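Is iron/sulfur cluster placement plausible here? Inputs below.
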Amino acid sequence: MIEELKSNCTQCFGLCCVALPFAKSADFPFDKKGGEPCKNLCSNHLCSIHDTLKDRGFNGCITYECFGAGQHVSQFLYEGRSWRENNECAEQMFSVFPIVQQLHEMLWYLKQALNTSEAVPIRSNLLEIYNKTAQLTSKAPEEILDLDVTAHRKLVNEHLVETSKLYRADFLHNTRKIKVADYIGANLDGKDLRGEDLRGKLMIAANLKHSDLRKVDFIGADLRDANLRGANLNEALFLTQSQINSAKGDAQTKIPEYLDKPIHWLS
Ligand code: SF4
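Reply from A.M.:
I modeled the complex. Tokens:
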């Protein structure tokens, strides 16, 4: 996966820690308004408690992923001028960031679609929508604020659904399919779930220990506290670092090569 679509906090003005609002919850210990710098944000835009976020109840910070939007907004759209020194553009920057984050997320999925050999028949369409999305991220901030992101996401989504069908073609008519009405807390220990479509499924605290999750489409699935210990997620489609970070795994969990194993899985 290209580096531009991975967060690089050293090149960002701590935008997720300032621009986004947080409500006191299991993921964040206090309320914070959008545009208000988090009290743990240092003057160099890095987090002062980065190494102890999980122990202190900042799970939301561990699972958040900007897909490289932070450095793009900071260094490209605002040419390295921070909100700290440029008060007049701070509010605009904080509004632009979440829009670019959504566009970068789409680029992340589209890049993965482009890299799958099964999607070769629709490659030219994928390339076209990828380039169109990339162009949107390079527009002037004022133009970005006027974008109809919902409409663009719908367009991107059609291409991703098509990719998913091609990618999981060997499993689409499989009678083995396991019927699960409610995935929250479901016990799927050791199950063969290869090629399943888990798009957007709420799988909070599901037990997927030792399950076979190869070629599963995970786009938008909520894997918070799902047990992935010993599970095989090799070749999983549209899985993000944020989803992996929010789940529980161990050294035996197999994940796609485009993701990193979270440190808290190994301790
Ligand atoms: S706790 Fe750290 S990572 Fe989380 S919002 Fe505050 S500064 Fe950012």
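Short version: The chain has a mean pLDDT of 94.
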